[in-house]
Every structure is written in structure tokens, then in C-alpha cells.
Amino acid sequence: MSHVFSVTELTSSIKEAVEIQFPFVWVRGQVSNLSRPGSGHIYFTLKDEQAGLQVVWFKNSHPFSRQKGCDPASTLEGGQDVVCAGKIGVYAPKGTYQLIAELIQEQGFGDLFLAFEALKNKLKALGYFDPAQKIPVPFCPDRIAIVTSPTGAVIHDFMRVAADRGLGSRIRVYPSRVQGENAPGDLARAIKLANEQNWAQVIILIRGGGSLEDLWAFNAEEVARAIFESEIPVLTGIGHETDTTIADLTADQRMATPSQAAQCLWPQRKDMILDVDEMETALIRSYNNFLETRLQRLHHLSKALGWLSPGQLLQRLDERLDSLEANLIRSARDLWKNRTDQLGELESRIWAKFGREFWELKSTSLDYLEKRLINSARALIIQKENQLSLDFERLTGLDPHGPIKRGYSMVTLERTGLFLRSVNDVQAGDALRIAVIDGLVKGRVEDKTEGSH
Fold first, then answer.
1. What is the spatial distance between Cα 383 and Cα 298, in angstroms, rounded to a whole number?
2. Which residues contact 216 (CB under 8 A, 6 or more apart)?
3. 428 with 447: CB under 8 angstroms?
4. Quick one: how far is CA 279 from the chain centroid?
């Protein structure tokens, strides 16, 4: 079964859909059913040949609330052709929709609106409004170029905000007319000059509020082209929140007012201080957590290292050795006792079997054999000592160093290391090594003479 809406649910859904779809529109038509209640709000119907639209113009949106002494709302009357700008809203209690007007202009300005829409469509087709073409506006820039009138109140408002938030940023003003026939050319030239000088990090295009005609310079194609071709990001703050110009649509970033344009560049110092404090707190907390984690890890590793250290290992081995030694002594004592008991038992059994006379005879025989063994061993040792002395004398006679001790010398060839035995073993120029009793003498063969033995 399909979902059954309550009236409130359906109206809320319609309200959300309509207000999202039409956040800001321009509507052209004729005023009828005009009403001015004591609240100061204005209610009327905007109609054309085929349809009608309910319009409410709240008191706080009237121009005189911003421009004292000027009250265009008072000239509004039935039958008048106007262009209304605002947003579509749904009035839930009555289930009706209406236009909540922010700006109402007489039909004389409707032609400007048509020209605005035509240029907007043209530039949109050329990609002037494409988000992919936008250059990010830097946060907290150091060098700012301002394109505006140097004599207006807007520049002073901007500089006041900059002094409070700018944190030492440098600002250059590129003077330009912001209203009138020559204003578009001035604005375009100022933007191009800022790009040629390539000093600024961002270009700010600002102007105070005014009528559609007052702001028309910012709807010029040459201004839009200069913004679009700018290699430096352009930030706009033109008019009031409800004023949207071609320059705003082309700019890399658009703010509702000049003051907001300044505010978006730099954060408030108190906010920065709070951010620094929060980051400091977070840093300290992270550092303490990091340090605590590392200390715990170090403690665990220290305990593990202590358990695995050579000292601890030796201590445990010593304890193990002591335990094994005690076990060995106990086992040896038990073994000795067992073997002693067994030996005593066997001795008793042997004595009982063979008798005392048998063992006395065996003991006498053993003493005799011991004496013979000792005498034979002594004779063998004397024989071996004599043989050793004879062999030593023979080896001494064969010692090659013996003749050296008696005054002779040994000669070896340095290139072969062999003893020199014959004149045929050497050639003239051969190096010789001559060993004598107290050292080594080096020589060289100058000549050789062959002879018979």
C-alpha cells in the first residue's frame, strides 16, 4: 500500500522542495490587490495574462530601512508593472506558496534585467561561471589589491576590518569609478593592472549597495572578461546580500557584502587564539599519551631485558647448578651407601665361602706379584732412560745449527730459500742470506769460481 501523507507531512515536503528549487528568483508582472496593513508589511498579487502570484514585502526589506529618507515602497500602487526579486516560500497554515520579495523595481528597469539575463546566458555558455575555472582564494593573504572607489565609505569599512583582522597584511588600492558610463572600463583596467604588477595574492572588487542601475557597471562584459582572465584570484563584495551581478558570478569567490569580503580573508584574532589554545591542549594531550605509551613499553622491555640479561641468565644457571650439585651429592651419597652395603654383603659372603686361610694365601701371593711388578717397572724405566740419552746425542749431532755454534755459517738463496751447496746453484747477482750464530747477514754474488772437491 502506498504511503498515506498527513497534511503536515505533504505540505512540509512541498515547502522543502519548492524552497530548495527556487532559493532566489526574478519575476516580472503587474501589481494587483495591493494591501498596506499597520504592520508596515506590503501584500499584493503579481500577475500576468495567465497566472497570479502572491507577494509579501516585509518591512525590514524596504529600501528606506537602509537609506533613510528614501521610501520607494510608498510609490508602489495597483496596476504598476514591476520586477520583483526574492525567494519562493510556502505558507503552511494555508497551504499556499508566495514570493517573499527582497527587491522591487519599476518596469523601467525590467529592460536591464532582460539584458542581464541575456549576458548571463552568453557568459555561462563560454564557461565564465564554471566552478572548475575558479582559483582558490588564499587564507590569510599578505598582499591584497582592492579595486574600488578610494573616496567611498566602503573602502573605510574594509580597512577597518583589515586593521582588526589583517595581522600586518599589506593592501594596495587600485582606484576606479564604480558607477556610471566609464566605470566598466575603469574596473577592467584596474584588474588588468593588478595582474601586470603581479604583486597581490588576491584581488578584492567591492562596492556599496544601490539600485540596479547603480550596480550596472558590474554587469558589463568587459569587467567579467577581466575577472575571468585574471591569473590572480578575484573576490567580490558588491552591494547587499540580495544583489547578484555578473562580476559576482564570474569571480572566484563571491561574498554578500564588502564587510563580509574582508571578514572571509582573515579570521578574528580571538578565534585564532582559541584555535592555538585548542591545538596546544591537543598537542600536550597527544604528547602525554605518546610519552605514557612509550614509558609503559620501556618498562615492559626493561623487565623482559632483565629476564634475558646475561647476569640474570648466569644467576638462574647458578641456581640450577646448585640444585644439580645438591642432587648429585645426594645421589652419590645414596650410591656410595648402596655400594658399600653391597660390598659388605659380598665380603661377608666371600669370607663365609672360602675361609680365612684362603684369603691369607691370596694376600701373600698378591704381595709377591706386586714386588715383581715394581722391580720390572724400575728396570724398564732405566732401560728407556738410557735409550733416550743415546737418541738425544744422535739428534744433537744432526742439528743444523750445531755447526753454526761451532763457528760455521749457513747460506741460503733468497730467491728459492734453499741451502747453497754448490757454485752451480748460484748466478752472479743472486741475493744470499747468511745465518751466523747471532743473526742474519745479507749478501750478493759478485762472481763464482768452480773447482774440484
1. 75
2. 112
3. yes
4. 16
Span 355-383, pLDDT tens digits: 677 777 878 888 888 898 888 888 888 88
- When mean pLDDT is compared across 48-52, 162-166, 255-259, 298-302, the lowest value belongs to 162-166
- In the prediction, which pLDDT does 317 show? 80
Specify the pLDDT at position 70: 46
Cβ-contact 246, 218 below 8 angstroms: yes
Sheet with 439-444: strands ordered across: 410-413, 431-436, 439-444
Residue 386, pLDDT > 80, answer yes
pLDDT band at 116 (very low <50, low <70, confident <90, very high): confident
CA 201 to the chain's CA centroid: 27
Total count of residues recorded for the chain: 453
Distances (CA, A) of 229 to 127, 133, 182, 216, 222: 12, 10, 21, 20, 10
- HSE, side-chain direction, 13 A CA sphere, residue 295: 6
pLDDT score of 235: 94
Higher pLDDT, 122 or 239: 122
pLDDT at 275 over 80: no
Q: With beta carbons less than 8 A apart as the criterion, state whether 268 and 288 touch.
A: no
Ramachandran angles phi, psi of 57, nearest 5°: -120, 100
Mean pLDDT for the stretch of residues 226-232: 95
**Minimum mean pLDDT among 9-23, 37-51, 396-410, 424-438: which range?**
396-410
Give the residue among 24, 41, 117, 32 at the shortest CA–CA distance from 82.
Answer: 32
